[in-house]
Amino acid sequence: EVNTLRFRRVPRGYTCHDVARMLAQHVPLTFVKYVRVTNTGYCFVVFVDMHAAFDAAKSMLGKYWSYAIHRGMTYGSRKIGIDVARVQGLPMQLREFRDRATQNANLEVLLVFVNGHEICWHEALEWFVGEDAGE
Fold it and tell me: What's 31's DSSP letter?
């Protein structure tokens, strides 16, 4: 089941909270389980199911990322690119993050939600993958 989307052309400097605010304009955040922003202009979002992923994609298709979410900047925007992520599902995305993270990982690049409430990624790794984040 496809429930994980990759969003492309994410503006540099965007955080997961910026992306979550953008998503909240299109779907309820209770539809979102996970948001991860990379430093290469991608964002991975795991939705509760394929219907939520489809609704988000349909709602955001053709829309633009705004550079001015909270920085007061007024220049430019980028069209949102959306496709199916290669790595599907919350447990696999958490493993991917854990495997790529360094000791000094910027945890602002990751949000995990349970019933619309943010939890820390260490807890998520234990709950959804059954592993301690320190392993």
Answer: G
Query: Percent of the chain having pLDDT more than 90?
Result: 18
Which tokens in the block code for residue 47? 């939705």
| C-alpha–C-alpha distance, residues 44 and 6, integer Å | 5
Cα–Cα dist 43/59, whole Å? 17
56 to each of 33, 37, 53, 96, 123, how far by Cα in Å? 13, 17, 5, 23, 26
Cα gap 93→44, rounded to integer Å: 8
Rounded CA-CA distance 31/29 in Å is: 5
Identify the residue whose tokens are 């995305």: 93
Count other C-beta atoms under 10 Å from residue 45's C-beta.
29
> 88-100: per-residue pLDDT in tens?
988 888 888 777 7
Q: What's the pTM value of the predicted model, to 2 decimals?
A: 0.80
Question: How many Å apart are CA 92 and CA 104, to the nearest integer?
Answer: 21
Q: What is the largest CA-CA distance in the chain?
A: 44
* Sheet strands (E) in 3-97: 4-8, 32-37, 43-47, 64-66, 77-79, 81-84
